[in-house]
Specification:
By secondary structure, the protein is an alpha+beta fold. It has twelve helices and 32 strands. Helices cover 24% and strands 28% of the residues. The strands form eight sheets. Strands 2, 3, 4, 5 and 6 form a five-stranded antiparallel β-sheet that branches. The radius of gyration is 32 Å and the shape is elongated. The termini are far apart.
């Protein structure tokens, strides 16, 4: 039995019997009495919320009286309330074709159903006709103008964002994840192999896990460990490495307010620890929900109706400082937040693209999905509506996007209204896609013992001083970092008592890779230890250090300051192009440039020895461009410690 709250569709469908005297031919008083009696029974059932039986009665009335205009209008209203807009439009169309003057009172709900199937042109025509109706009350005028604005928005958006060959066809994730219960709020690890989502069974919300095995999602099982309780857990965000789960817990005994943010950690056995409240710096006595953790675990976005916002619910961010504590949350500001509600933030693995929903920004009717991107100045761009048919006239919930930038997941009941929410996947068009993001699975270990080393990794986008992040490995030296393609990066890994590790690499736009493994052996500081400084840059045949070298040079300064007795040799090397004498001089002068920089930063000259080797010590063949590039290098060698 379907029971629903009485709303605008039903009220209009059954009760707006005005302007009857203007009808061209339809006379309600001439309708078959038996059909009227059945229709009245249908009305009573609808008022009770039993739409299924009410529809059956309306079908029966139309069998008795095939031109029963009110029955078509009422059935159209119920279908609209059930969001079966196609059926609603069919019945409205039938009623208007029978008597357009009598039916004109229903132009507003008709327009809503037309918008529900994406026919915004005719929807605008119908709502405009409705607003031209004589003697409308103020509430009707307000409702009509609101809908008119949304239809005009839809048509303007269509003009400025042509769909091209984009085809929106969400695919159900299948029986492994979806059941007759409600499944929603998916979250995904960076490799796309683990999904955690919320399932509601008998009004109890718990977390379920599923594995993607060769493109098929396994049978979901309750999350292992102590994370699920007899209370409701939901609206979760799994960290990109799958080790943290931050979620919303409501009405917990130890909670700060109605809903708080909690955190749980994955153990080595694969289970989840008992949840911990994130604490009163983040949680208030109001409502905090819908967390989304940045890929580097440094920023936590969430929605809250806490004080000092811009309206109802706003999106906020808290940062995790060097001691692992969350800072006082910051509002994302009026570019994103409105006097309405902004919820369900999702920060993509590119750490630049934020998806969220809002009912305060211009859109199609209720809560729409938007995206905003963080610029080089760390300011967010004006939100972009994701457009129809991703957005509709109804509420859109949470959306997540995989590391490829376009494969998306969300919960919807569009394709099967009777089964409730299921989780679907679909592809985003390029304009609203995130940046494709690769990830590095790294392991840092002692070069001699091969044992894992907890260390600090610093990643910097070369040429973009605003992009720099630090990653702490776990106790075994493992780390995961995500990288948007289309940029060059430098990577430095530090641990006290060891020479730092240096690397740089580029990720071209056309790369087909999704991840790579990086094993990092750290050299203990001792005489004879050496590393290649892969982020020291010179122009072709030049000895002047390029600005991008500064971060790495400062690492050397820090290393020497931490080890005040250490003496080092700075060695320059070239490929075999050109004369040997010229190569030797070039390599020496480059080494001297590094030494001079270090002296300028306060390092004693007696601890530094520049030396040029020209092309005499190649590490690769000079027969290839790649080999020549490897041979053109600067090294640091420990002389004594």
């Amino acid at each position: 039995m379907m029971k629903f709250k009485l709303n605008i569709f039903l009220i209009l469908a059954f009760l707006l019997f005005t302007n009857v005297s203007k009808a061209q031919w339809y006379k309600p008083e001439k309708v078959n009495k038996k059909a009227i009696k059945v229709y009245e029974a249908a009305y009573d059932l609808a008022v009770q919320g039993d739409y299924e039986k009410s529809l059956n009665k309306l079908d029966e009335a139309l069998v008795i009286e095939p031109k029963y205009v009110e029955a078509y209008l009422s059935r159209a209203g119920i279908y609209g309330d059930l969001k079966n807009y196609s059926a609603s439009v069919n019945d409205f169309s039938k009623a208007f074709s029978l008597d357009s003057i009598f039916s004109s009172t229903y132009s507003l709900p008709y327009s809503i159903s037309l918008a529900g199937i994406g026919n915004f042109e005719l929807a605008l025509e119908k709502v405009t006709a409705f607003l031209n109706t004589e003697k409308l009350n103020s509430q009707s005028i307000k409702s009509g103008n609101y809908r008119k604005r949304t239809y005009e928005f839809a048509l303007d958006y269509k003009k400025s964002h042509p769909a091209g060959d984009y085809h929106f066809d969400p695919v159900n994730l299948g029986d492994g994840i979806n059941t007759n219960y409600l499944e929603y709020y998916p979250s995904l690890t960076i490799d796309g192999k683990k999904m955690i989502f919320t399932r509601r069974v008998n009004n109890d919300e718990d977390f379920y896990e599923s594995e993607n095995i060769n493109g098929v999602w396994s049978k979901a099982t309750p999350a292992k460990g102590k994370i699920n309780t007899t209370l409701n857990e939901g609206a979760q965000s799994i960290s990109q490495d799958g080790q943290w789960l931050i979620f919303t817990g409501c009405n917990y005994p130890e909670g700060q307010g109605s809903c708080d943010l909690y955190i749980s950690f994955k153990t080595k056995s694969g289970s989840w620890t008992e949840a911990e409240n994130i604490g009163p710096i983040v949680n208030t006595d109001l409502w905090e929900s819908a967390p989304s953790l940045s890929p580097d675990k440094k920023d936590l976005y969430f929605s809250s109706n806490r004080f000092n916002g811009y309206g109802g619910k706003d999106i906020w961010v808290t940062h995790r400082n060097a001691s692992g504590k969350w800072t006082v949350p910051e509002n994302l500001g009026p570019t994103i937040n409105t006097s309405g509600d902004e919820t369900c933030p999702f920060i993509h693995p590119d750490n630049q693209t934020l998806y969220f929903n809002s009912n305060g920004l211009p859109g199609y009717g209720m809560a729409d999905l938007f995206l905003t991107r963080k610029g080089p100045d760390n300011k967010w761009t004006t939100p972009l509506n994701l457009g129809y048919p991703i957005n509709t006239i109804d509420d859109e919930g949470s959306l997540i996007v995989a590391s490829d930038g376009y494969t998306s997941y969300y919960a919807s009941d569009r394709k099967n209204k009777n089964s409730g929410l299921d989780i679907y996947s679909f592809t985003l068009p390029k304009e609203i896609s995130a940046h494709k993001t690769l990830w590095i699975n790294g392991n840092v270990f002692d070069a001699k013992t091969k044992l894992g080393l907890p260390s600090m990794a610093t990643l910097t986008c070369i040429g973009n001083t605003n992009f720099s992040t630090q990653i702490q490995t776990d106790e075994d030296g493992n780390f995961l970092v995500t990288l948007p393609i289309g940029y060059e990066y430098s990577l430095n890994i530090n641990r006290k008592g060891y020479l730092f590790y240096s690397d740089h690499f580029s990720l071209p736009e056309n790369t087909t890779d999704s991840f790579f493994k990086l094993n990092v052996p750290l050299q203990p500081i001792e005489a004879g230890a050496s590393i290649v400084l892969k982020n020291i840059f010179f122009g072709n045949n030049e000895t002047k250090l390029q600005p991008e070298s500064e971060a790495e040079l400062n690492k050397i300064v820090s290393l020497l300051n931490e080890n005040p007795n250490m003496k080092v040799q700075i060695s320059g090397h070239t490929d075999n192009i050109g004369k040997k004498e010229a190569n030797q001089l070039l390599s020496l002068n480059r080494a001297k440039s590094v030494v001079n920089y270090l002296i300028g930063k306060g390092v004693n000259i007696n601890r530094l020895l520049p030396k040029g080797f020209g092309d005499t010590k190649p590490v690769a063949s000079n027969d290839t461009d790649e080999g020549k590039s490897l041979n053109r290098r600067t090294e640091i060698n420990v002389v004594s410690n």
